[in-house]
């Protein structure tokens, strides 16, 4: 570590001193935090609006998940390429490009006249986010040196990720019941364009030293395999698992994944250099993140439907029901940021994932005729605290031992894990839950009481999927993350 790095290592992230790039680190963190917040806000802001979108565009129920997964899958599939593009062509340039694409496709989504137009706009919107997220996170890791300063900055970053997911459902409810669901997209337009315009005054251009080519073919193969898998999971419920169509699609997924591996093995500059996985903390954190975000996005997707379609909440009431959860997410994030530095990552993560699993278990037990104060609020408080602690700890762990030249790749990798996990989690949970909807409606014969009980049972199955993801992440952390001695700092933990 150089002398300048040592100086940075001792500085708090919101220090008023300037970074070597000539900008105050607190201002840089605030600016890129807005960009990060917007990206993850759009993952969840749609959830509360889904019933209104379905009614407005006359969408079949099975297509609702594609509004979420089209965005998340494209975002996840191209994040790694976005990280490499940021290192090659400049982090600020990619950040600005992504903000413009994101803003314009938000306008198209808000103007959508049918489900195909909306889902298509969401997919391209995900491409814009795939440029924003890794560029912003790479700017952060190059602004703050590894150690306490970066840990605190990543703590704020992780808190923003968690808070954006919760703020999305709150804002989504207010906008949907207020000016209408189209405004959940229109609101992004001025924010994105203004942020792109002022970026040069806040962030100086920076890039890695490498000028290698980038692996577009690998990104396309990976994204195509994820999209085909999610589409197949949704369609198999209706056409059958043993049909030629389903089996053929699954074979196509395998072929695309094999093609991706072949491309990576032969590419001069692969999308995912296998050498990055020499870092045990990084590879464990990424797999755990896939599982955690499978839990998180499934929670918000189905809790919103549960409150509106079982408890009869309005969009605004459903959104406001998440306010306590948002508060405890920020509390958990701040608590974890301090504890990781003083104790270690593993025990903090284990507590966070345990709380998340317990909170989801309480939601799984919520009755069809329950109350918010007794049946939902305790679950939201526990799961929110757990998610806040887990978000931050995994963000910090994923960057242990990562050098500046690999920061863009590591940023893309952790964001890919978040989005791929969220998309796959919703796809799996929706496949299980929505397969029961048609038989349920037929058996209820229009009886609202039977329909209410039936929907509650369907959504309970989705929450059970979320529990499985969360417990899986917990077991993974127990088995693979090292226990650190109390005297060890997170930046000295073993990584291989």
From TrEMBL:
GO terms for molecular function: transmembrane transporter activity. It is a multi-pass membrane protein. The keyword Membrane applies. PROSITE patterns: MFS, SUGAR_TRANSPORT_1. One of its GO terms (cellular component) is plasma membrane. The keyword NAD does not apply. This is MFS transporter.
């Amino acid at each position: 570590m150089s002398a300048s790095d040592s100086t940075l290592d001792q500085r708090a992230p919101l220090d008023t001193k300037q970074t070597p790039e000539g900008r105050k680190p607190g201002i840089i963190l605030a600016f890129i935090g807005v960009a990060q917040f917007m990206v993850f806000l759009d993952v969840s802001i749609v959830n509360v609006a889904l019933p209104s979108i379905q009614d407005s565009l006359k969408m079949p129920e099975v297509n609702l998940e594609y509004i979420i997964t089209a965005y998340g899958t494209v975002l996840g599939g191209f994040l790694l390429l976005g990280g490499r593009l940021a290192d090659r062509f400049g982090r600020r340039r990619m950040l600005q490009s992504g903000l413009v694409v994101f803003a314009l496709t938000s306008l198209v989504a808000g103007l959508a006249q049918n489900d195909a137009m909306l889902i298509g706009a969401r997919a391209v919107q995900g491409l814009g986010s795939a440029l924003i997220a890794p560029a912003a996170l790479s700017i952060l890791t190059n602004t703050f040196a590894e150690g306490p300063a970066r840990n605190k900055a990543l703590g704020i970053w992780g808190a923003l990720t968690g808070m954006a997911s919760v703020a999305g459902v709150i804002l989504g409810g207010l906008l949907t019941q207020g000016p209408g669901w189209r405004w959940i997209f229109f609101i992004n337009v001025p924010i994105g364009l203004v942020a792109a315009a002022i970026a040069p005054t806040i962030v100086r251009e920076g890039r890695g030293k490498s000028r290698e080519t980038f692996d577009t073919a690998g990104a396309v193969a990976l994204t195509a395999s994820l999209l085909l898998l999610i589409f197949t999971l949704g369609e198999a419920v209706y056409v059958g698992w043993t049909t030629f169509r389903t089996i053929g699609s699954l074979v196509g997924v395998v072929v695309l994944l094999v093609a991706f591996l072949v491309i990576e093995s032969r590419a001069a500059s692969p999308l995912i250099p296998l050498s990055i996985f020499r870092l045990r903390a990084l590879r464990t954190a990424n797999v755990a993140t896939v599982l955690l975000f499978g839990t998180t996005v499934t929670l918000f997707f189905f809790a919103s439907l549960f409150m509106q379609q079982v408890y009869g909440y309005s969009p605004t009431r459903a959104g406001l029901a998440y306010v306590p959860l948002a508060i405890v997410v920020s509390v958990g994030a701040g608590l974890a940021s301090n504890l990781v530095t003083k104790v270690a990552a593993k025990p903090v993560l284990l507590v966070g994932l345990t709380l998340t699993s317990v909170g989801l278990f309480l939601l799984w037990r919520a009755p069809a005729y329950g109350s918010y104060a007794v049946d939902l609020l305790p679950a939201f408080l526990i799961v929110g605290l757990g998610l806040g602690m887990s978000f931050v700890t995994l963000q910090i762990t994923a960057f242990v031992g990562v050098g500046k030249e690999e920061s863009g790749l590591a940023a893309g990798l952790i964001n890919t894990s978040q989005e791929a996990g969220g998309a796959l989690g919703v796809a799996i949970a929706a496949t299980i839950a929505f397969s029961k909807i048609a038989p349920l409606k037929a058996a209820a014969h229009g009886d609202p009481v039977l329909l209410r009980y039936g929907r509650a049972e369907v959504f309970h199955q989705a929450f059970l999927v979320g529990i499985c993801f969360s417990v899986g992440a917990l077991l993974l952390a127990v088995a693979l993350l090292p226990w650190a001695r109390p005297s060890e700092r997170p930046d000295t933990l073993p990584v291989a």
